[in-house]
Structure formats: C-alpha cells, structure tokens
Amino acid sequence: MSYIKYKSLTNLTLKNIVRRRLRSILTIISVTIGIAAVIALVLLSDGLFNAIQGQFEKMGVNSIFVMPINFMGGPPSVDSQRLGTDIQITMNDVKTISNIAGVKEAYGFSFQNAKIEFNKEEKYQMVYIAKEEQVTEVLDIMGVKLREGTGLAGKQGRKVSIGAYVADSMFSRQVKIGDTIKIDGFDCKVVGIFEYLGDQQNDSAIYMTRELAEDMYKIKDNVNEVLIKTYPTDDPSLVKERIQNKLEKTHKKDTFIVVTAQQVLTVIKSVLNVLKIILTAIAGISIVVGSIGIMNSIYTSVLERTKEIGVLKSIGAKPKDINYIFISESVILSLIGGVLGLGLGIVIAKAVELYTHAQNLSILSINITWSIVLLAIGLALLTGFLAGILPARRAEHMNTVDALKNKY
User: What does the domain layout of the chain look like in residue ranges?
Assistant: First the structure.
C-alpha cells in the first residue's frame, strides 16, 4: 500500500515538473553550472597533481636533491656571492656525496640563462649542464628521450642538444640536426633533438656538457643542484641525514638544502590541496546560488498548488506525504542538474586537457573515477534535499480549509 502511494506521489511530482517545464529547465541549469564548476576544478587539480607525481615516479622515489640556499633557478648572482663562497655547492661536494653509504650515484647540474641566436632571431632560454660521462644517465633519469640525432657523450667541440620546442616553434624557421645556433655569442652545432616532455620549460631547454660550459662560461666547479640516487634497499630519509651531516662538516649550517623526492611531492600535494579547497569553495558559491534557485522554484510551486495541497489533505494525505511531494521535486530537479553538471564538468576538464596537449603541454592528464561521479551525485542530492526542506515544511503545515480557499 505504501509503495503504491509513494509511486502515485512521485508521478504527481514528475507531472508538475513537466507541466512547469520552463521554470524546471532554468532551475536545472542553475544546479548544472554549480556542479560542473566543482567537478571541472577537482578533475583539473587532481590531473595536475597526478602529472607531477608521475614525473617524480619516473625520476624515482629514491631521489634526493641538494641545492645551495641561494639557488634561484640559475647560477649564483653577484649579490648572492656576497654571502660568501661557502654558500655554494661544488663538484668536490658531489664527489664527497657519491662516497656516502647508501648513495648509488650523485649528479651535479648547473644552469645558465643564455641568449640564443638563430636565423637572425634572438631568444633567452635555460641551458642545462652536466658532466659528459653522466649526461646520458641524467637525461634518462629526467625522462628526456631523443627524437632524432645523437646524444652528447663522446662529442668533441661545441655540440649541443635541444628541446623539441626550440627545434619546432621557437624560431620562424625550424632548427634541424647539423644547424648552428649561437649561445651567448658562441657557435654551437645541434647534434640531437629531444621528444616533447609536456612542459614548455623543459621542452625549451638546451643541453650541453660541463666540459663545454667550463670553456664557454668559466663556471669553475660550482653546481646549482645535485641529484642523488640511493640504492633501492636504502631509506632515502636516512641517506638524507648522512648527507646533511657530511656537508655540515665543510659548510655552514643553513647554507644548503637537502630534500627527498617524497618531501617535495608532499609539499606540492599540500599546496595543490589548499588550492583545490579554495577553488572548490569559490565554485561552491555557484552551488549555493543553484540551491537558492531550487528553493525559490519550490516555494513558487507551493504557492501555485495551494488548492491542490488542500484537496490532498482533505482526502487523507498526511503531512509527511505533502512533505515528500515537494522534497522529491527539489531532489529530482537537483539530481538532473547534477548528472548534467557531471557531464559538463568532464567536458570542460577534457577540453582543457586537449588544449594543453595541442600546446605541447602533455603533462596534464584527466582521469575520470567513480569518486568523481559519486561526488557529483552526492552534491546534487544534498543540495536538492536541503533546498526543499523549508518549502516542504511550509506546505505540510498549511491549514486544510485555508488551503482549499487558496488563502495563502
């Protein structure tokens, strides 16, 4: 009996939604926009983190990074050198680190902002520098793969390799294997072009051996960063402590930074989680607006159906039945908006992913999971239920006689 009654009440609700289709459509749209904004932002933030995590996994969780405290993405400036020579990490430190228990290999990097000239055009890009005998391993760890040409190991003279963006898009004419480019006034022959990595900073990079950089820039033995690979059986955190203790014997405290890949990933995750919360809260305003729209729609429905409510009560409908009619209407409208919002949010996120891939920024990857579906449906149900409570309570507390006389 109860099943038949609620089936009839649900049919009555659906008929009312269809009868007032324009208002129903506008209400559904307001919910759709809110849910779509939340879903798109969650998918994009998760996609960004997963991409970053994937890059670290390629590099390996057994990685440790050492940098001088004044490292700002390039060689120490004149101002930073005033802090003292001890503020620098040297190739001698790299050798010392490589002999520490648990360290499988230590790679010293240097970076140089350089003026690149080709085809009578000038650009400024980052040059990555590593020792000749380590350059192949370093690029492999970074996930950099050759698209054409050869590597830098064993090359004599001014030979460099370039990122795919430098070759394909940086200049009005494509840079090819065998072409000569000027780097800070020095003629250098291109012997290798790498595949796209998915982020423009790395795809715009130029790679050279330390031996060539010492000849061109007189960089001596200073390095900007040390990448350390530990043995799989060793705990990177313990190896990190050994490195710190060793460096503190030759350097002042707080003049260098030692971090594990896991620590970096944890910090990035924390930042992205805070960003996700902020953006989702902003998008949540759209859901609040949508819920107000639903509430307004249901209030209007209650006023329009006052006489119908009186008739239902006069033939035996209980307050909970009246309550059910309007809450179910609110939930149905919100649920439809939630499903449409889920679809629209996925489309928006995928569109951003396709756009980034078209710009050769393939690092972003959107993954649709059941948790996203449940989030959209859950938000829609909660929004609909909460938005329908007050109008439904007003309807169920109407006096039967006054309702029949349409006095409300």
Answer: 2-56+267-404, 70-254
